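Why should sequence recovery work at all? Because a backbone constrains its sequence more than one might expect. Tight turns favour small or flexible residues, buried strands favour hydrophobic ones, and helices have their own preferences. The token representation captures these environments compactly. In the example below, the structure is given first.
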């Protein structure tokens, strides 16, 4: 008597990989990010800059670019949080590799923060120069 191979029985995670579950996992990740002070500051800054740019009447493409840059920043911040969690779990005491992982994650977030700030400054300077 031959038994058929059942992927769901062999890999129980397959059942949880449907698109509806992916949104649930993303929402859970978002809840984890809201616990981070840096993410709350990023969200507040995004709203503030969107209001500032719309007040100065910049074109729609610049607003879309700002939103894309902020989504990239949120993605990097989420990856940084994941790196921190993994490093904290694996490195029980202080280790050089753990410090390096934290520093590199923070560097990636800081680079995107600088890119966002440069875009906003250039956009506002161009908008003010036109008026």
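From this structural description, the recovered sequence reads:
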């Amino acid at each position: 008597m031959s038994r058929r191979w059942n992927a769901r029985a062999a890999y129980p995670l397959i059942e949880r990989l449907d698109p509806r579950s992916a949104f649930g996992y993303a929402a859970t990740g978002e809840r984890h990010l809201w616990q981070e002070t840096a993410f709350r500051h990023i969200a507040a800054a995004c709203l503030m800059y969107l209001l500032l740019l719309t007040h100065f009447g910049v074109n729609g493409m610049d607003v879309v670019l700002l939103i894309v840059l902020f989504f990239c920043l949120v993605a990097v911040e989420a990856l940084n949080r994941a790196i921190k969690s993994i490093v904290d779990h694996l490195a029980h005491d202080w280790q050089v590799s753990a410090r390096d992982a934290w520093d590199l994650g923070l560097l990636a977030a800081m680079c995107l923060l600088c890119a966002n700030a440069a875009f906003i400054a250039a956009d506002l300077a161009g908008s003010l120069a036109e008026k």
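A few observations help interpret the result. The CA atoms of residues 74 and 96 lie 26 Å apart.
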